[in-house]
Amino acid sequence: MTPTPARLTAAALAILLAEGAQAVTMRRVAADAGVTTMATYRHFPNREALLHKTVDEAVAEITSGWATVETDGDFVTRTEQLLNLFLDFALGKRNLYTYLVAERRPDARQFPDDFRTGGSPAFAPVLDAVAQAMRDGALRQDDVLEVTLAITSPVVGLLQQYHGGRIDLPEPEFRALCGRTVERVLNGLR
């Protein structure tokens, strides 16, 4: 039988993915996991701790292979692959993405410190790719952290508009728009 904490995080993740973080309550998670609400509190002191553990595990699983994407490939290929993986995540697990990126929460990773130290699993592979591109001469020398932010922020902004219904494109066309936007940013950084 699956241990209770794993059942609780699985139930919390299922609710989060289907309905958003606001739907995740200790009572609801307990019911979905088949335990009492008090059992939930024995494993997690509060909703925030449960969400933190749930989200950390989900993001670790989603991003587990991102750091090794085409590390021997050229910078453009690596960037395109990372962009596609990020869009798969942001579009395929919209409620999780929104919780991570757009909702205010006490355990949110903070720029610059958490991003500089690799604390963001989605940002760190791009940071590594940018650093390598600067070493290889594919990008001109600059602040690696801020250049990575310049590359990633337009996509986050486009996703915010897309999820908010402000960009009315089918998903394939939206993905192409993101690719063209990143390419324009890279052209300015070369």
TrEMBL record:
Gene3D superfamilies in the record: Tetracycline Repressor, domain 2 (1.10.357.10)
Pfam families assigned to the protein according to its UniProt record, in alphabetical order: TetR_C_33 (PF13305), TetR_N (PF00440)
SUPFAM superfamilies to which the protein is assigned, alphabetical: Homeodomain-like, Tetracyclin repressor-like, C-terminal domain
Residue ranges the UniProt entry marks as DNA-binding: 25-44
GO MF entries: DNA-binding transcription factor activity; transcription cis-regulatory region binding
Domain (HTH tetR-type) ranges: 2-62
Coiled-coil features, chain-numbered ranges: none
Protein name per its UniProtKB record: TetR family transcriptional regulator
Organism: Kibdelosporangium phytohabitans
